[in-house]
Amino acid sequence: MKKVRLTIIACIIGFIAMAQEDYTRSLNGIQWVKIESNANMKIRTHSKNELLIKANEPYRIPEKAKGLKLVGEGGTDNTDVGFSVLQEGNNLIVKNLQKSEEAEIYLPASQNISVKSKWSGSIYIAGFSGEVEASALLNGGIEIEDVSGPLTANSLNGGIEVSFNTVSQSAPSSISSTNGELDINLPANTPANLTLGTVNGEIYTNFELSVPDKNGLRAVVSRKVKGAINNGGVKIQLSTTNGNIYLRKQ
Amino acid sequence: MKEQQVSDLLVDYLDGNLDAKEAAMVAKHLEQSPALRAELEETKKLLKAFKEEKTAEPSDRLRSGFYQMLEKEMENDGVRKITSASRPNTFHFLRIAAGIALLFGSFLLGMLWQSNDFESEIASLQTENQEYRQTAMLSLMENGSASRRIQGVSYAEELTALDPEILEALIRRMTEDNNITVRLSALEALSNFTQSEKVKDALIAALETEQDPGMQIQIIQTLVEIQEKKVVSPMQELLESNETEPYVKEHIKSLLPNII
Fold it and tell me: Which residues of A touch B181 (CB under 8 A)?
């Protein structure tokens, strides 16, 4: 009997040791959380005032690396989930040191976040009411849902999809891509001054833009469309070089 | 509790205004201190004396005297009313008219006197407002948030002329900001001022250092639109460089015939 109990306890201890612990850290005094990654990123919200990095299932340390720490260009793994987390002033710098593993991060909805994908990783962000900055520097795309802005997003080759729940009137939002297309959803009653511009792409929208008239003539626009919706409001800029722009009413 | 505090509580103690805990505390102090007991006795005597003192009431003679005086006064008042009503109405009207005339006269005089001052005051307020706006712009352009920096940059679109300090800050945003959306906004703001040689030179300098293909194309586009010949040499450099993206080269090739 004693033997059986011992085996069960040993099993439980072994199981706990094997299961990956999520990494959490308090966000007291943190104004911006800046996340960098080469791999895919999912940033979601939760109700606690802390950063939570979900441990990858499975986050495997290779057999030969046992007892060693993962070291990358971004720093050293100080979280045991393959991330480096450092505080710089009132910014929290969060870097994904793994090159291929997808990561999932949870933050409070009001947190200001800046997310950067440096290689081909795509970025998914949902549910934030604070400021959001997203930047896909190479091949990744960006998908942002259920945010109120202010938002700045840019990509090189990937497309950008954004769906606003409301649009904060406090500061401008700006979304741009060089080769990707923009697909932006705004609530129908959003008051805004829009600037839509593209060099080689096309612009499509079902919003009624009140383009300023000049001496009764409609301004002839080629690459750039400027206009107010719902009597004007905060500035929203959408621009691409080669991709199309789709601006949809929600 | 100190003795002074206890003695402050004595009146309330005697009146029964203290709660049970405080009363017990005071009682305990009283037991221990003969000085306090003496004070308590004194206070008791004083309170008793207050209670025994009768409220003074006016005598009947005083009362009747007062009513007589009041009646007399009322009769006098009636007489006065008659005299004031007997004065001519026209005089009254003239007095009011003179008052109004005086009021208007001094108002007009004051207006005349102040008008110069007033205008200069408005002008100085306007410049103050503009200065305030410029300071706000400059500080927004240094903000940690990209969206705020864009807000600062976009204020420039409402300006008709650029102050050298603002121009410098805009150029810095266009060339040095690590967020591409901010660089693009600064470029757009500056493209309204391409008649300035300084802006043209800054755009050409930016084209020589800019690595982002999107920015490269936007800068080229802006300079070709104003037919700035100086753009040709950096464009050709980009064509020859191995680092330039193929679609940027395509774009340059399609634009070069328009400008040479």
Answer: 152-154, 174-176, 237
Residue B136: strand, helix, or coil: helix
- The structural domains of chain B, with segments of one domain joined by +, span 3-50, 115-190, 194-260
Q: How many CB pairs under 8 A join A and B?
A: 81
Q: Is the dihedral of CA A58, A59, A62, A65 positive or negative?
A: negative
- What 3-state class would DSSP assign to B260? coil
Both tokens of B204, joined, read: 């050409």
Q: CB contact, 8 Å: B151 with chain A?
A: yes
In tens, the pLDDT along B145-184 reads: 999 999 999 888 888 888 888 999 999 999 999 899 999 9
Q: Name the minimum distance, in Å, from the CA of A65 to any CA of chain B.
A: 36
Q: Which of residues 66-85 of B touch A (CB under 8 A)?
A: none
Look at B145 and A131 and tell me if their CB atoms are within 8 Å: yes
Least confident segment among A90-94, B47-51, B97-101, B194-198: B47-51
Q: A169 to chain B: which residues are within 8 Å by CB?
A: none
- Least confident window among A45-49, A65-69, A89-93: A65-69
Look over chain B and give the mean of its residue pLDDT values, rounded to a whole number. Answer: 82
pLDDT digits (tens, 9 = 90+) for A48-65: 999 999 877 655 667 788
Q: What are the extents of the domains in chain A?
A: 21-121, 149-250
A232 touches chain B (CB under 8 A): no
Tell me the pLDDT tens digit for each residue of B158-168.
Answer: 888 888 889 99
Pairwise CB contact (< 8 Å): B213 & A156: yes
Phi, psi at B181, each rounded to 5°: -60, -35
**Interface membership of A40 toward B (CB under 8 Å):** no
Instruction: Collect contacts of A89-94 with beta carbons under 8 A, ≥24 apart.
Output: A90/A29, A90/A30, A90/A31, A90/A32, A91/A30, A91/A31, A91/A32, A91/A33, A91/A34, A92/A25, A92/A27, A92/A30, A92/A32, A92/A33, A92/A34, A92/A51, A93/A34, A93/A36, A94/A33, A94/A34, A94/A35, A94/A36, A94/A51, A94/A53
Classify the complex by whether its ipTM is higher than 0.95, answering yes or no. no
Q: Under DSSP, is residue B234 helix (H, G, I), strand (E, B) or coil?
A: helix
Exposed/middle/buried for residue B172 (C-beta within 10 Å: 0-12, 13-18, 19+): middle
A116 bridge partner residues: A36, A135
